[in-house]
Amino acid sequence: MLQTHTEQRLSVCSKLCFAIGGAPIQVAGSATAFFLQIYLLDVAQISPVPASVVLFVGKAWGAVTDPVVGFFITKSRWTKIGRLMPWMVGCTPFLVVSYFYLWFVPPFTSGRDIWYLGFYCLYQTLITCFHVPYSALTMFLSTDQRERDSATAYSRSPNFTRSLAAHSMQKVYMIAAGVIGGIFLICTTVMFLGVKEKDDPYGPRTEKPIPFHKGFVLVMKHGPYLTLTAAFLFISVAIQLVQSNFVLFCTYAVDLRDHFQNIVLTILMSAVVSIPFWQWFLQRFGKKTAAFCGITWMMPFTVMLVLIPNTVVAYMVAVSSGLSVAASLLLPWSMLPDVVDDFRLANPFSKGHEAIFYSFYVFFTKFAAGISLGVSTLCLQFAGYNTGACRQPPPVVYTLKLLIGAAPVAFIITGLMILLLYPISEDVRLRNKLLDDEQTSMGRFTTDIIKQSYES
Q1: What are the b/e assignments for 131-158, b being 16+ CB within 10 Å?
Q2: pLDDT digits (tens, 9 = 90+) for 80-99
Q3: For 218, 355, 424, 452, which has the most beta carbons within 10 A of its beta carbon?
Q4: Is pLDDT at 343 greater than 70 in this prediction?
Q5: What angle (nearest 5°) sits at the alpha carbon of residue 173, between those of residues 172 and 178?
Q6: Closest CA to 100 of 41, 184, 33, 21
């Protein structure tokens, strides 16, 4: 009755195809995170207030679509290619078109903010249709926690390489959008051919999905999920503030406008190299310890860049920050499957709620990121930001220093304080693994009995 370890192992090819499938999310996300704000201000020539509306409403709309997509995924029935894969394959062509027009400068000047708001909301909706099922797919690759963690590390490692590609194309926005569109199509095809979505291994599949509202109530009452989501909500806001304002900071606040591209590349390269280290670290010392060590490391170096805007210091800060960026992107997606396992054990008769976990996690982080983007752009407006100017007044410089230094540190400290309350330690995780294995074997045994009875 017991599944062998060999049956649950994932081949390197499957992990690579799964990682390649995440390329569209990260390429597009890196480009919009680093460059959409300055693109709207300096290329599209939109004033700060309409630009802040575009950024905030777009992010808020994307956040709202996450639970909606999660609802429809929960209602979806199993198909020959799975329950999640049809969502990713079906939305990709439309996603390519919306992303291209997001970086297209229309020939008219009046109403450009409406143009970008419309396509940004459309892009957010379609990227959600891809991101939520892709994230939930982790739970259907294997029931082995180490294999899932390994697949997560595979999916995060190339992300920074794809971020390098998005960064290197930032001066040719429309060409970059077309190239990224091609990446969308190719990577989705590779994932479709190389990844097999497995049915729920914890019990026999039911033809009638579990009611969404009941699943939502159970998930929202689950303490570990709320703690993890709240902690990384604040941490993701800090990362988003740094990402969205870093180009403006290097251009106007410090004398690093000739180096900011290389500094960003250094951060991303450091993150690429450090992913295997954090994967080893979390297996050796635990995920909670890795989160504290990795994310805390970012705070002193961020403040140092603001106080000592020296070129040598900037590159030292870039290397150190890359370590924290890698940890902040790897660990929440590695810890979330543990929360789902804990939920399944606490609610053994509740099935098919994986999409709720992932969709609402993305909802909260997107909504918080949207607020931070909108507020930071409004702060620049109130400080007197001049669109298209070569230099900005001192209040703008001071505001950018706060948005890069003090504000992210405050959010990170808040997130880490909440993370102290996260109850799933390594001992709890190992206990859950043993109980999961027992539940899995019973589920497979029940499925075999049902199948034999039906055949007889």
Answers
A1: bbbbbbbbbbbbbbbebbbbbbbbbbbb
A2: 888 888 999 889 889 888 88
A3: 355
A4: yes
A5: 105
A6: 184
Tell me: the pLDDT tens digits for 277-296? 888 898 888 889 999 998 88
What single-letter DSSP state applies at residue 39? I
Greater confidence (374 vs 132) lies with 132
User: Is it the case that residue 71 has pLDDT exceeding 60?
Assistant: yes
Query: Which pTM does this prediction carry?
Result: 0.73
Fill in the amino acid letter for 141: L
* Cβ neighbours of residue 106 closer than 8 Å, sequence gap 6 or more: 112, 115
Ranking 216-225, 233-242, 364-373 by mean pLDDT, the lowest is 364-373
Assigned token pair, 317: 């800060």
User: In whole angstroms, what is the distance from residue 144 CA to residue 429 CA?
Assistant: 12
Q: What is the residue whose two structure tokens read 């777009």?
A: 58
Distance between CA atoms of 404 and 307, rounded to whole angstroms? 11
CB 152 within 8 A of CB 327: no
Number of other CB atoms surrounding residue 371 within 10 Å: 16
Type of residue numbered 34: F
DSSP secondary structure string, 211-264?
Answer: PHHHHHHHHHT-HHHHHHHHHHHHHHHHHHHHHHHHHHIIIIISS-TTTHHHHH
For the chain, percent of residues with pLDDT exceeding 70: 82
What is the predicted pLDDT for the residue at 226? 92
* pLDDT class of 167 with cuts at 50, 70, 90: low
Closest alpha carbon to 251 in 38, 403, 44: 38
82: left (phi over 0), alpha (psi -120 to 50) or beta: left
**Rounded Cα–Cα distance for residues 368 and 350 (Å):** 29
CA distance 45 to 387: 7
CA distance 63 to 175: 28
Q: How confident is the model at residue 441, as a pLDDT? A: 60
Interaxial angle between packed helices 287-296 and 298-307, expressed in degrees from 0 to 180 and rounded to the nearest 10: 10
Sign of CA dihedral 100, 374, 307, 396: positive
Of 54, 177, 45, nearest in space to 108 by CA: 45
Residue 206 Cα to chain centre, angstroms = 30
Output the pLDDT for position 456: 46
